């Protein structure tokens, strides 16, 4: 395939470039009704309009030229940029643990993509070493790109592929596994891997970044160091999410894959353990457990890989006035399991009852989770709750909605027998339902209150 | 401490060397410097003029702009570390790598009133503030720049921490413009709109503290070509750009609202950027001294090139020394020992006579090393002593002892520095690097200015390699209709205003004051609408108002538009315009007071013309009784004096004089 010399340009702008015979990366001088401009033609993002041409001028800035103003245009030279993170061979140090990094895409390692104008993943041990040389002091790293998708495109297929790949690596004797992942659905993958990779002898750490690694203040490098430290050196052999504790560059938190949730669209400290405390804090030097009970690292290579998933599962976020046809439509479309995200202690309105009954009759299993995120489903407290249980909705304890969704898909991948499913759903694999909620499992402080203001002034949040 | 010379070094006197090298390069003070001096050293300079825009909100978020806090007024702190990243063209930037070497922990102080999650980079940018964009475009048009078709927000890396993201969002609005000076035109490279940076609170060792109140405020940067060939021309250009910006009434004034980066080089030197000069009056001295500093560094280069054959092989020698083996009674050294600082001796082969070489008034080459030790290795000053101190801090025997230690040659120079163990590798690297740079000439750097006109090293000069497209923002198209609309409502050019003031016969010594405070529109208004004589209003503002501003304080915010009201009041009441001068101090001090009350407060009483004139015969009579002179003029003057208090505001002096003659 010949190289695209008009990268990203379309319509009228493309015609103009062709007319004057100017390529992308061509140095050009342009005469316009607004005066003269000089610079290198840059590729254009696909979704931008077709009436501007992008130039990089001598001072390094980019500008756009309105094609309607162009009187004359001439290519005077050509220099293509080569955007490449300097690759250096990752040094192997005797005595350090070996860690495998699986790449799935996302912003943990990324570079500019002219097609979309956004960032795309870039990644190899050499590139990572070039960008974060400190990693070589933590572990001996190998990497494998399992797939390159953005977080929102991660799904059941990827969970299964990842689980199998992890199984292989464990058998091959790796000391720890890190999975680089976009942050949006990091907690879904955390849950999926907890169910699909059981009884692991080593830590499996999911990590991402909230600011892409092409930014000087990115959290990517520190997150990666924390994750490698955890994978290589920690005693906690669980599926964990490793992300910033406070928004400051201070320490990371290790969250159980089943109890973690992304709670802010853009904060660095977006991941929080819900209804419990995190497993541990992690810095570049050490891991400090917060929870005393955890699954410990073992020397053996035994692991259970259970790579099942049925996509006949869905979620329904309840809202006041919801009509029964929403449930009917799901049932009619062949869904076998529905996670209902109900209000308060786990409620939906009475209007839905006939639809719920109908679904149960058709063999669709339904589990109740909470919009409140914190707390347990308590369906005995009010009549409505008891009614719903009678009609077939099963309370899912304090399982987070996303986790319940993943678990139900995983269960349905193994059986369609409602009783079997119930057994799977309500038997916790790693604290997706806990027996008790500690008093410090729910802490959302309100700004403005004097003691909270004191706290955030004195501790870097 | 008295100079204590050992026998083998009696022939070398650092002070003498300083004076001699100062002469060698032909340094002249700025007062004595002529155009020929600047031509001799090839003085060349350009400007980057920063100016805050007077908007309600910040550039990329909805925090209020222009509210400032004291250092301790904050609600929370956030820590960040910066890492260098690749530019769009796949290169690392030199400054970025230097900043990374410093391993700084950067702490930001946030106040809820002026900072949100955008300032600490926990929220992506909101759409650019349209008010700011519009003001910046107006100024771009006044600068005759070619306006871009589409604005692309770019990230400009700053790893010093002055912006928590590690980059500044900035965008070019126009390229290739010009401004007229009295005798020539200066071309402009570009004008950009950008977010202002944090204000530094402190920078000690490896911790730098910033506050975020100013961060994100809209700023424009006007960049000239390096076409100013004398310090005076440079200042003239700076003033013109400042006045042009202010002529729009869209910009902030006051401390720090306008700041200049001054680029200076000499023939054979390189572009050095003196950062953040707030006062234009400092520009001539700063640029003068910098050009000569470069001239001096070139002299150092040629001296070193004579003795050092292969510059790539030049290396320092170093050795840790024990405090007890030497006589190092110098507080900074002994205090360092408490913190377990290590003491190192360094030999600089062939650097004799270089360390005490003149660089700036009162400064020598050794200062260049010490400044870098502070900035790059983060060792607080004083951080070293050396064998060519102008005022020795330790006795010279120490250096003879060190020379023996290294088996040093007669032509070598020595440094002793002290530092925490972890900073020693960077310190040694820094010393070697700065000396190697001396073999090449003038290092590219940014420098911080002092009021005396000298500068110190601030950072390595960043290049174009630190630009990266902002993937968080979409390009903003600028349609022809929008730009045409803005063009129609522009204020007149400063140069045209200058010529108009001249035409009106308003004295030139008032112009700076008039332009600095953007008072031309007011003067024009008063002349056109109130038909006041131009020279009168010109001097009223340029002399009287300036004096009042300098000598009184205003209880409320004094708006210049009050001047128009004052003249209008006097005209409407058919009072003498001269009364304005007497009223001004009160108007200025109490802007809310109405004019009637002001008249009362200056003891003004309304008299009719007839009432005043009717007193003349009586006074004439009185004067004739007491006179000692026969001169009629004296009589007139005496009567004028007697009547002045009652006359002022009621009858103009020329009319009074006539009346005295006639009655």
Please characterize this protein's 3D structure.
- The complex is a heterodimer of chains A (461) and B (663).
- The radius of gyration of chain A is 26 Å and the shape is globular.
- Chain A has 461 residues and is of the alpha/beta class.
- In chain A, strands 9-6-10-12-13-14-17-18 form an eight-stranded mixed beta sheet, with helices on both faces.
- Chain A is built from eleven helices and 23 strands.
- Chain B is α+β, with helices and mostly antiparallel strands and 663 residues long.
- Chain B has four domains: 7-26 and 304-460, GAD-like domain (Gyrase A, domain 2, 2-Layer Sandwich), CATH 3.30.1360.30; 35-69 and 84-95 and 117-271, no CATH class; 492-604, no CATH class; 611-662, no CATH class.
- Chain B contains 22 helices and 23 strands.
- In chain B, the strands form five sheets. In chain B, strands 1, 4, 6, 7, 8, 11, 12, 13, 20, 21 and 22 form an eleven-stranded mixed beta sheet that branches. In chain B, strands 2-3-10-9 form a four-stranded mixed beta sheet, with no helix packed on it.
- In chain B, helix 15 (534-551) runs parallel beside helix 17, helix 16 (561-572) packs across helix 17 and helix 20 (616-626) crosses helix 21 (632-647).
- The radius of gyration of chain B is 32 Å and the shape is globular.
- Chain B starts with 13 loop residues before the first helix and ends with a helix.
- The relative contact order of chain B is 0.11.
- The interface between A and B is large, with 63 and 69 residues.
